[in-house]
């Protein structure tokens, strides 16, 4: 037994470590010291360890914090602006013009803060962001205490914050340098999609990502139209083109992948790339269905993301995971596809792995960062509890998120944000809505 007392000992009714897979621990304690998980033991044994604070959590389930592996945080301010449209109409006729008109650093600060607040309240301890002015977004991550992968946006045309791809990359490299020692922030490259980034830019990104050992996060094969267009323009499917350019590998994060043929499957599996599944955005934009079960059975790491609030329209990863579990069964034609335990793994450890963070977060293991979510399963509509993971995925909404810690720091206590001002954030978002609606 270590001489130093634990900072905090949590005593939930159920504890799901995610690794090993499928395990539910009843009446166990989890101890935190210096922001890390220092103890995992049956309750009686855990109570023998001195602790500065002991917290009973009856009727609560403790899990690793949820990882939202794909989103566009500040798009919260465009929530509901252009609904019920297919991807290219939505993007080209509504979202890109709105972004050109409204997105500046203030928009990013207010929209990202709103996204962080919404995500913390929904049990998310880590998110990936692909949006403009990444340096401004990273300031909000730093201030709020959440963990994030911030990506450097690259497109062939001018974007808010960069006149061209070279400027975006130059500013991005400064961000890599500024954040290289940050304990909760990682930076990755975010080329938007195969249809908006040319070969020379992608080759440059591959070289820089190799040098920096950085992730590459990209929308890929979101629709059948995208695949068709690539066949016409490049003679190969988008994923094959990216493979030809050397982009695939363990740090490659392919977002969406609703179109998957046998060659795609082999490319993803052989390169150890991750797929990030965004089922609600794919459903709402009628983009297609990612064959999650087929990918999983091929050994491909599949994580989950909400996408932006303009195509979802929420940042509710628990709800997204439920949708993913239900949809996987329909797509596979099998009720055994993506069971509740695997769905939770997808929302935690697989997300961590996709973002290159699996050594630090994603499961409750000694030495990992104490990034945790406590869910209240004591409500009427959650009774009786045979399997808390089944209850969480199939019978609970994000309102049951009660407490949340990142690196051992409490960021949500009894449903209340500890570091962010919910009223001010809400008022700011309303003010942006009034301005945008007034001039739309
Ligand atoms: C590189 S900045 C992000 C860029 O992506 C746009 N976007 C948001 N959601 C999607 C999606 O599902 N597919 C393609 N592009 C999307 C966002 O509006 C920004 O312009
Ligand atoms: Zn997206």
From TrEMBL:
UniProt cofactor note:
Binds 1 zinc ion per subunit.
Gene Ontology molecular function: hydrolase activity
Q: List residues binding substrate.
A: 99, 192, 222, 307
This enzyme's EC code(s):
3.5.4.28, 3.5.4.31
Q: Which SUPFAM superfamilies match?
A: Composite domain of metallo-dependent hydrolases, Metallo-dependent hydrolases
User: Record's InterPro entries?
Assistant: Amidohydro-rel, Deaminase_MtaD/DadD, Metal-dep_hydrolase_composite, Metal_Hydrolase, MTA/SAH_deaminase
The UniProt entry, under CDD domains, shows:
ATZ_TRZ_like (cd01298)
Residue ranges spanning the membrane: these are none
**Domain of life, per lineage:** Bacteria
The entry marks the following residues as binding Zn(2+), namely: 70, 72, 219, 307
Assigned keywords, A-Z: Hydrolase, Metal-binding, Zinc
Q: Which cofactor does it need?
A: Zn(2+)
The residues covered by the Amidohydrolase-related domain are 62-410
An example of a Pfam family matching this protein is Amidohydro_1
This enzyme catalyses: S-methyl-5'-thioadenosine + H2O + H(+) = S-methyl-5'-thioinosine + NH4(+); S-adenosyl-L-homocysteine + H2O + H(+) = S-inosyl-L-homocysteine + NH4(+)
**NCBIfam families per the UniProt record, alphabetical:** PRK09045.1
Family classification: Belongs to the metallo-dependent hydrolases superfamily. ATZ/TRZ family. Belongs to the metallo-dependent hydrolases superfamily. MTA/SAH deaminase family.
HAMAP family to which the protein is assigned, alphabetical? MTA_SAH_deamin (MF_01281)
Q: Please describe what this protein does.
A: Catalyzes the deamination of 5-methylthioadenosine and S-adenosyl-L-homocysteine into 5-methylthioinosine and S-inosyl-L-homocysteine, respectively. Is also able to deaminate adenosine.
Name the PANTHER family for this protein.
Answer: AMIDOHYDROLASE-RELATED DOMAIN-CONTAINING PROTEIN (PTHR43794:SF11), AMINOHYDROLASE SSNA-RELATED (PTHR43794)
Q: What is this protein called?
A: 5-methylthioadenosine/S-adenosylhomocysteine deaminase
Report the source organism: Pseudomonas lalucatii
- Species classification: Bacteria, Pseudomonadati, Pseudomonadota, Gammaproteobacteria, Pseudomonadales
């Amino acid at each position: 037994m270590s001489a130093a007392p634990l900072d905090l000992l949590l005593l939930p009714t159920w504890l799901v470590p995610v690794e090993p897979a499928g395990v539910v621990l009843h009446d166990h304690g989890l101890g935190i010291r210096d922001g890390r998980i220092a103890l995992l033991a049956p309750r009686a044994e855990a109570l023998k360890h001195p602790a500065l604070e002991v917290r009973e959590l009856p009727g609560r389930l403790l899990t690793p914090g949820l990882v939202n592996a794909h989103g566009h945080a500040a798009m919260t301010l465009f929530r509901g602006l252009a609904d019920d449209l297919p991807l290219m109409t939505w993007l080209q006729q509504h979202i890109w013009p709105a972004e050109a008109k409204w997105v500046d650093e203030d928009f990013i600060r207010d929209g990202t803060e709103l996204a962080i607040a919404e995500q913390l309240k929904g049990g998310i301890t880590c998110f990936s962001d692909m949006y403009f002015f990444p340096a401004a977004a990273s300031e909000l991550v730093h201030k709020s205490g959440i963990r994030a992968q911030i990506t450097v946006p690259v497109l062939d045309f001018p974007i808010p914050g960069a006149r061209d791809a070279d400027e975006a990359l130059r500013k991005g490299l400064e961000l890599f340098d500024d954040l290289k020692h940050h304990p909760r922030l990682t930076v990755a490259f975010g080329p938007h999609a195969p249809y908006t980034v040319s070969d020379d830019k992608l080759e440059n990104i591959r070289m820089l990502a190799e040098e920096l050992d950085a992730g590459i996060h990209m929308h890929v094969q979101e629709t059948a139209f995208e695949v068709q267009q690539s066949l016409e323009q490049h003679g190969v499917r988008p994923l094959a083109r990216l493979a030809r350019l050397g982009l695939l590998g363990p740090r490659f994060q392919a977002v969406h992948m609703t179109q998957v043929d046998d060659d795609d499957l082999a490319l993803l599996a052989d390169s150890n790339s991750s797929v990030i599944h965004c089922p609600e955005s794919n459903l709402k934009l009628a983009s297609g269905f990612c064959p999650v079960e087929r990918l999983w059975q091929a050994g491909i790491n599949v994580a989950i993301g909400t996408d932006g609030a303009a195509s979802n329209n929420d940042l509710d990863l628990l709800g997204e995971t439920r949708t993913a579990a239900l949809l996987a069964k329909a797509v596979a034609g099998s009720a055994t596809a993506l069971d509740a335990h695997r769905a939770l793994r997808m929302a935690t450890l697989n997300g961590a792995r996709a973002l290159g963070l699996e050594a630090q977060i994603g499961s409750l293991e000694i030495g990992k960062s104490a990034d945790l979510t406590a869910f209240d399963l004591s409500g009427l509509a959650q009774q009786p509890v045979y399997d808390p993971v089944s209850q969480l995925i199939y019978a609970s909404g994000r309102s049951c998120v009660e407490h949340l810690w990142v690196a051992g720091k409490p960021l949500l206590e009894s449903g209340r944000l500890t570091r962010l001002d919910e009223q001010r954030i809400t008022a700011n978002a309303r003010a942006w809505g009034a301005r945008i609606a007034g001039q739309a």
